[in-house]
Every structure is written in structure tokens, then in C-alpha cells.
User: What shape does this take?
Amino acid sequence: MSASLHLARPEDLEKLLTLVQGFHAEEGIDSTDEQRRGALLPLLEGIPYGAIYLIGPVRADRLYHRDLHLVGGIWRA
Assistant: This one.
């Protein structure tokens, strides 16, 4: 089995917001959409301090936080 790894882009923001919101709810982390957006956008726009990688097809319609877990800064199925 192989999986494709790709660098998340600004157009992935809505999918990532859903993932992060679900993770925060599950872990009891209190954050607003504005805070999550403010944390994710610079990474998606290419700041040199970090990156977000997604595993799976680039054109996947949906991402589910229950099916993924964070490993070393990478969301994995």
C-alpha cells in the first residue's frame, strides 16, 4: 500500500479548519475559528517556520479527524 504526501496549500484551508476544530473539540482545547485560521494561514502561505503535509489524494473531497492522527507534525490515516 502506498500513500501520496503533499504540501497543503491555501485552498486546503477549509478542510484543515474542520480537522483542527474536531481535534480541539475532542481534546478539550478552547479555540475560535479566528485563532485556528490565524495559525494555519501563514503555514499554508509558505512561511519558513513550518509546513502542513496531507496524506492522501490531492483532490480528496473530505478529511475526517477521527480517521487521522498527528505524527511528527504530519496528519496520517
Q: What stands out?
A: Strands lie at 5-7, 53-55, 69-71, 74-76. The chain has two helices and four strands. The longest strand covers residues 5-7.
